[in-house]
Amino acid sequence: MNSAALIHVHGMVQGVGYRYFALFEAQRLSLHGYIRNNPDGTVESFVEGAKNDILEYLAALERGPILSHVRGTDIEWQKFEDKFSDFRITR
User: Fold this and answer.
1) What pTM does this model have?
2) Which are the contacts of 44, defined by CB distance < 8 A and separation ≥ 6?
3) Of the listed 2, 28, 37, 63, which one is catalytic?
């Protein structure tokens, strides 16, 4: 069953390759959506796909790339609407 989630990541997650790390993980898991930096220093990701794959993606986001330091994540489950055909980094 497909799901959708809006995820916010807190910590040292900008300027450390975090979005490219997330892009790789999302593509590996065949998830669709986006990831972007927010002005408040957080990173926001919206993903659609199988719930188990989203949970695996979330675990990867909590781990982050080696130069990052993730302090926490917030996840808000949303209705699956099949809005995206791929995963991309947005601004």
Assistant:
1) 0.96
2) 6, 7, 8, 9, 35, 36, 37, 38
3) 37
